[in-house]
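Note on ligand handling. Small-molecule inputs were canonicalized before submission; formal charges were left as drawn, and no protonation-state enumeration was performed. Where a ligand contained multiple stereocentres, the stereochemistry in the source SMILES was retained. For flavin mononucleotide, this procedure yielded the string shown in the input block below.
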Amino acid sequence: MSEHLDDAALSQLFHTARSRNQWRKEALPDSTWRQIYDLLKMGPTSVNTSPARFVFCTSEEAKARAAKHMSDTNAAKSVDAPAIVIIAQDLEFAKKIPELFPHNPDAQHWFSDEKLKQDTAFRNATLQGAYLMLAARALGLDCGPMSGFDNAALDADFFAGTQIRSNFLCAIGHGIDKSFDRLPRLKFEDACQIL
Ligand SMILES: Cc1cc2nc3c(=O)[nH]c(=O)nc-3n(C[C@H](O)[C@H](O)[C@H](O)COP(=O)(O)O)c2cc1C
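Structure output:
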C-alpha cells in the first residue's frame, strides 16, 4: 500500500515549487536527464501510447538553437539553465503500440482517425510533460515551463521530415530567483465539484 508523502515532499513537489526565471550556471551530467526520463516514463498514458518525445538541449549550441525560436524574454531567461527541454508529441506514436501494448498489437489501428490521433498525441504528451516537471522537482531540480515560442519554426529546425511536433519547452536546473509572490489559485469551490 502506498504511503502519504510527508509535508517536506509535498512542499518540494507543490507548495514551494515555483516556475523559475533565473538559473545557477552549471552543467549537470547526462545521468540527470536519464533519471528524469526513467521516472516520467512511468506516468500513465492512454493505451500506454507514450507519445511524448523529449529533446534535452544541454550544450550552449543546442540551447541557443532552441532559444532563437523563443520570445525575447523567454530566450533571455532560459539560456543559463543547464537544460532546455523540448517536450513534443510524435504523431506516429501508434507505430510503437506493438512494443508498448504487446497483448493487443492491433490497437495500433485504433488511431487512424486524424482527430483522435491528434487529440491522443497532444493529451498524453502534455501529461508526460507534467510528469517531467514533477520528476525534476522530485529530484530536487526546478522547472521553467514556456509556451512562448514559434512552434512551427522550432519544428522545422529540430523535427524536419518527421511527424514530431513541439508542445512546450521547459528549462530545468537549480533556480535562483524569487522575483514575485506566488500568484493566486482558484478556490476549491470555484474549480471543483463533488457530486
Ligand atoms: C505550459 C506552460 C507554459 C508557460 N509559458 C510561459 C512562458 O512562455 N513564459 C513565462 O514567462 N512563463 C510561462 N509559464 C509559467 C507560468 O506563467 C507560471 O507557471 C504561472 O504563472 C504560475 O507560477 P508558479 O509556477 O511560480 O506558481 C508557463 C507555464 C506552463 C505550465
